[in-house]
Amino acid sequence: MTIDLHAHSTASDGTTPPAALPRLAAEAGLTVLALTDHDTFAGLAAASAASDIELVAGVEISCRLDDAEVHLLGLFVDPGHASLAAELELIRTDRARRAVRMVERCRELGAPITLSQVREIAAGAPLGRPHIAAALAAVGITDAFTSDWIADGGRADVPKHVLSTVDAIALVRAAGGVAVLAHPRSVKRRASVSDTQLAGLASAGLAGVEADHPEQPPEVRTRLREVATDLGLLTTGSSDFHGDRKPVRLGEHTTSPEVLAALRSHRS
User: Fold this and answer.
1) Which run of H or of E encompasses 95?
2) Beta strands 163-164 and 68-75, pairing class
């Protein structure tokens, strides 16, 4: 088995249609793929209908840990679970409000972008910062994720509705799934999840951490495995595939069959 537990489609901020992902995954040699679009299950039906590999129902939830944003993978979840579906809907609708206001702020700061451009880039997907960043890049602003523009706390940033990570873990578990913290020490993110914070999340029901990830160098992966072992957490690996939006291939990092089996056993 070759297993990738983190991938995105055009249902959120990827560039590959959901129905095309299983074929690409099979061509990459994968036998198991988790579709984990941001705060939505919208791509699951199309991906499942086209799948000739095992497709894991998943979602990547944007949430808050102390003063920082982190991302939580919910794997093997029930997409129809009412409380989880309602919370994801609230996150998505607030994201659209936020995106509109961020475009307005960018324009106020002198960037000649429009909401229609951002919507065209999103191509029907829920509006998000990557779409705004692409619009900014099209007018020559290639450093969008900085304090000058749309990074967290940046001049064009807008606060958003967000769950606490502990509450997100509880929702994933209530929906029959398992919770894995995505890229907790990515070199591309402002905040790094500390050992102490991981211990607190483990006590709250976290099942695992994503250790092998393209944005985490080898020494970080090694340390995450050490901490996970001490805390009784599983360690996963994945590509965090976004199609053409990131220079990452499906299956660039993978999860062992033993860990996949252990994740299944953690299901509520």
Assistant:
1) helix 82-108
2) unpaired
Asked whether the beta carbons of 161 and 91 are under 8 A apart, the reply is yes
Do 40 and 74 contact (CB within 8 A), yes or no? no
The answer to the question of residue 132 being in a domain is: no
Q: CB count, 10 Å around CB of 86?
A: 11
How many other CB atoms are there within 10 angstroms of residue 49's CB atom?
Answer: 11
Q: Hey, CA dihedral for 168, 173, 174, 176, is it positive or negative?
A: positive
Task: Report the C-alpha gap between 45 and 133 in whole angstroms.
Answer: 29
Instruction: Show Cβ contacts of residue 174 under 8 Å, excluding neighbours closer than 6 positions.
Output: 81, 83, 84, 268
CATH of the domain at 72: 3.20.20.140
Q: Please give the average per-residue pLDDT across 195-224, as a whole number.
A: 98
**Which range marks the domain in which residue 8 is found?**
3-87+161-265
User: How far is Cα 261 from Cα 92, in angstroms, rounded to an integer?
Assistant: 31
CB atoms under 10 Å from CB of 170, counted, come to: 17
Do the domain assignments include residue 239? yes
- For residue 149, is it within any domain? no
What residues form DSSP beta bridges with 208?
A: 180, 234
Cα–Cα distance for residue pair 123/157, rounded to 1 Å: 22
How far is residue 141 from each of residues 116, 134, 136, 242, measured CA to CA in Å? 18, 9, 5, 21
Examine residue 99 and state whether it is found in any structural domain, yes or no: no
Closest to 182 in 3D by CA, of 10, 1, 68, 36 = 36
Q: How many domains does the chain have?
A: 1
* Tens digit of each residue's pLDDT (9 = 90 or more) over 63-113: 999 988 899 999 999 999 999 999 999 988 888 899 999 999 999 999 999
